[in-house]
Write a structure and sequence with these properties.
Two copies of one chain form a homodimer.
Chain A: E1 7-10, E2 17-24, H1 28-36, H2 38-44, E3 50-57, E4 64-71, E5 76-87, E6 91-98, E7 105-114, E8 120-128, H3 131-139, H4 142-158
Antiparallel strand pairs in A: 1-2, 2-8, 3-4, 4-5, 5-6, 6-7, 7-8
Chain lengths: ~160, ~160
C-alpha cells in the first residue's frame, strides 16, 4: 500500500519564484524517464479531467516540446517550451509557456535525488518574468493541477507503467 | 556623425531582474538580424578584447546555440542556451548559461520597436533564478560587457556591415 505523498509548495511574497518539493516511491531514474519519455509524460501531466496529446517532445539539451491538453468539455489548452539542459537522471531545465496567455514564459529547474528504500525527491524551482506572472499562475490553479498530476504519476509508478 | 548611445540599466534591489533599454541608429529589422545571424552576432557580442566563435546558432523558436569567446590572453569563455521564441523582427526569448558557472541560467526577453528616423529601441528583460545570481552577474561586469558589445554593434550598423 502506498501512503499519500505531500507536495510542499513555497511562494514567497514579492518574489517571482515557486518552489516545489515532492517525494516519489520510485528511484530518480524512473521519475526522470516519466518526465522525458513523451508516451509516459502524456499519461500523468496535469489534472485528471484532461487528456494530453504530445505533438513534439525532444527531451534533450537544446530540444523543444509542445503538448495539447483536451478537457472533458472539449476545451483545448496548448503549452510549449525549450529544453535548456537535460541531464539524466537528476536535472531538467526548461522553459514553459501557456499559449492561452502568450508572452509569459517561465524557467523551470527540476532536480531529482535518490533517497533510501528506492524512493526519490523532486525539487522544482520555477522562475517567472515578474511577480505578477507568478501570482497569476498560482491564482489560475497551478498548484492543484500539479498536485493532481503528481498523484497520477504515483499511480503510473505503482502500476509499473513508468 | 553618430551620437553616442546611452544604455539604461535597471536592477531593483531584492528582485532577480535586470532591465536594459538601448536605442540604435537602425531599424528593428537590422538589429534583429544582427542578433540572429551567427556571422553578424560574432562580430559584436561582448567586449572588444574577445573574439567570438559561434559553434551552433539555430536562431528559431525551439533552436539552440553555443558560442566561445577567446580573450587577448587566450582565455576561453563558453556560453550556451535555447531559443524559446524568435519572432522577426521584434521579439527574442532565450535562455543563457555561462559554462564557467554551470547550473546558473537566465531567461532573457528582448523586444525591438521601430522609432522615427530609421531608429529603433531594444528592451531586454533578464530574469535570474535567484537574486544572488542576478547580483553576481552584475558584479562580474555584465553591464560593461554589454555596453561595449552594443558600441561594437553601433559600429557594425554604421559601416553597413549589418
Amino acid at each position: 500500500m502506498t501512503a499519500t505523498q505531500t507536495t510542499r509548495v513555497t511562494a514567497e511574497p514579492g518574489l517571482p519564484f515557486v518552489d516545489v518539493v515532492r517525494e516519489f516511491n520510485a528511484p530518480a531514474a524512473r521519475v526522470y524517464r516519466a518526465h522525458t519519455d513523451p508516451e509516459l509524460f502524456a499519461q500523468w501531466i496535469g489534472p485528471r479531467r484532461y487528456s494530453t496529446t504530445v505533438e513534439r517532445y525532444d527531451a534533450r539539451s537544446g530540444g523543444s516540446y509542445r503538448f495539447v491538453q483536451t478537457g472533458d468539455d472539449g476545451a483545448r489548452y496548448a503549452f510549449h517550451g525549450s529544453f535548456h539542459e537535460m541531464t539524466e537522471p537528476n536535472r531538467m531545465v526548461q522553459t514553459f509557456e501557456f499559449e492561452g496567455d502568450p508572452g509569459h514564459v517561465s524557467l523551470d529547474t527540476a532536480e531529482l535525488e535518490d533517497l533510501p528504500d528506492g524512493r526519490c525527491r523532486l525539487t522544482v524551482h520555477s522562475t517567472f518574468q515578474s511577480v505578477q506572472d507568478r501570482d497569476a499562475m498560482l491564482a489560475a490553479g497551478m498548484t492543484d493541477g500539479m498536485n493532481e498530476g503528481y498523484e497520477r504519476l504515483d499511480g503510473l509508478l505503482a502500476s509499473g507503467g513508468a
